[in-house]
Design brief:
By secondary structure, the chain is α+β, with helices and mostly antiparallel strands. The chain folds into two domains: about 25 residues, no CATH class; about 120 residues, no CATH class. It is built from four helices and nine strands, in the order H-H-E-E-E-E-E-E-E-E-H-H-E. The chain has a five-stranded mixed β-sheet with strand order 1-2-3-4-9, with no helix packed on it. The longest helix has 14 residues. It is globular and about 40 Å long. The chain starts with a helix and ends with a strand.
Length: about 150
């Protein structure tokens, strides 16, 4: 096994394992994969389908991703518990991110979704701005994403 890792490299090995597990039907193809980066990514360098976690091995500061809607807007999530709202990201060995809590856009396209093991799980109220107008308490007390 170590010999195989040496030949392929860790990222190639993970990619190979993920591909085999998808083809065998053990896991679903993820919408997102995640990578840890040392600095904020420039919009030109961001690839749709990737979440860029700014931080290091022992800390996480920010996460950047393209919105999964047609807008493809770049979303910025704070991962710092001292800021509100903030999110947590867990990245498994297959580079699949799980983001908690859900991500909600307060502007068009009003997307509201979870990311679990790299897969987008849409909330029933996604795309519906009426709930934001009717319940201002939600705006003040729920976690939401900032648009960059």
């Amino acid at each position: 096994m170590n010999h195989l890792l040496g030949l392929l490299g860790k990222s190639m090995f993970v990619h190979y394992c993920r591909t085999v597990l998808i083809r065998l039907g053990f896991i679903s193809k993820p919408t997102y994969l995640a990578r840890v980066v040392s600095d904020h990514p420039s919009p030109e360098d961001m690839v749709p389908g990737w979440i860029y976690v700014v931080g290091g091995s022992n800390y996480q500061k920010w996460a950047y991703l393209h919105c999964p809607t047609e807008s493809g807007e770049i979303m910025q999530l704070s991962l710092q518990s001292k800021q509100h709202p903030y999110w947590r990201i867990n990245i498994d060995w297959l580079c699949r991110p799980t983001v908690t809590p859900s991500i909600r856009q307060l502007t068009y396209p009003y997307a509201h979704y979870w990311i679990r093991e790299g897969i987008v799980v849409w909330c029933k109220d996604s795309g519906n701005p009426s709930h934001l107008i009717q319940n201002s308490y939600t705006l003040k007390h729920k976690h939401y994403a900032t648009n960059k």
